Structure formats: C-alpha cells, structure tokens
Amino acid sequence: MKTCGIMLLCALLVGCDQPNDTQLRLDASRQLQRTIDVNPLRASCEEIARGREWLTQRTLEKLEAKGCQNVLRSATETNFTHAEVYRHTMTVVCGAIDGKSFTGTDLPRRFIYSPEEKALVLEPMSEQDKTRFEGRKTLQQLQDDFNRQQQQYCQ
C-alpha cells in the first residue's frame, strides 16, 4: 500500500517542473519590462521629456528629432492585449502589447518570448528597434525575420 502511494505521488508529480501558462506569461511580462527599461534611447528620451506628462511643442519636436515617438515610455504604461503559449519543438509565448511612446502616441507591437532562452523579441517597427547585433540589417530584413519567426513558432 505504501509503495502504491509513493508510485501514485510520483506519477502525479511528473511534469510539475514545467511552468504553467500563467507562469510563462508572468515571465514574458518581466522580460518585457527589462526590454523596455534597457532600451538605449530611453535614457535620452527621458532626459528630454523630464518625466512631464504635458509636453510643449518644442519638447515634442526635440523628442521626435531623437526618434522618441518609437520608444516605449514605461513598462507600467504598457499592457498585454493578448498572449498565447505555443508548445512545439520549443515553448514560446506570442502576443501583442500596446504602450505609450514618449510623445504620447500609441505603440502597438507584437512579441515573441522564449522562456528557454530568456529572450523577448519585440516586432521591429523603426530604426530605433535595431540592437547593436542587428545594425547591419535593414529594417525590412528585421521585419521579415520577425514575421518568419511568428509563422514558425506562433501557430
């Protein structure tokens, strides 16, 4: 009887080390926050905006000249519009977010998050979305790469 109970407990615990969908979405949310916070342009945009909610026309022009209309202002002002977990050869969380830029415009973006690689990729929409590793690719190439990954992992 004791052996049967232990075997039953082991059978129930198999697979418990795998994160559930809620945990995966939380991980994606944390990684999204990190991605927004470490954007290299964010600091210079913040310096121009100086945390103000109401911006003068001159400040808006400075922000736009720096490309800040394409930079998410804050992770706390960014919301998931949807997120789905897909399990194929690797588990990924795919979805979309909607946030505010430094100029106050809406920035809807799709994303792909890989918990195994702890990497989140935001849909590239402007030159500001290039990382130092992607500097040689054109924006169109980056968008094509993202769309290819979206089709491969998010269906």
Walk me through the structure:
The chain has helices at 2-13, 21-37, 40-49, 57-66, 139-153, and strands at residues 79-87, 91-100, 106-114, 119-122. The protein starts with a helix and ends with a helix. It has five helices and four strands; from the N terminus they run H-H-H-H-E-E-E-E-H. Residues 7-13 have low confidence and may be disordered. The protein has 155 residues and is α+β, with helices and mostly antiparallel strands. A four-stranded antiparallel sheet has the order 1-2-3-4, sandwiched between helices.
Defining key terms:
155 residues; alpha+beta; 5 helices
How are the SSEs ordered, and which strands pair?
Layout: H1 2-13, H2 21-37, H3 40-49, H4 57-66, E1 79-87, E2 91-100, E3 106-114, E4 119-122, H5 139-153
Antiparallel strand pairs: 1-2, 2-3, 3-4
How would you sum up this structure in a few lines?
The protein is of the alpha+beta class and 155 residues long. It contains 5 helices and 4 strands. The N and C termini lie far apart (45 Å).
User: What would you call the structural class?
Assistant: alpha+beta
Helix run count = 5
Q: pLDDT below 50 for ≥5 consecutive residues: which ranges?
A: 7-13
- Using DSSP, what is the number of strands? 4
Mean pLDDT reading: 85
Indicate the radius of gyration in whole angstroms. 20 Å
The helix fraction, in percent, is: 40-55%
- Percent of residues in beta strands? 15-25%
The outline comes out as globular
Distance between the termini: 45 Å
Strand order of the largest sheet: 1-2-3-4
N to C succession of SSEs: HHHHEEEEH
Largest sheet: 4 strands, antiparallel
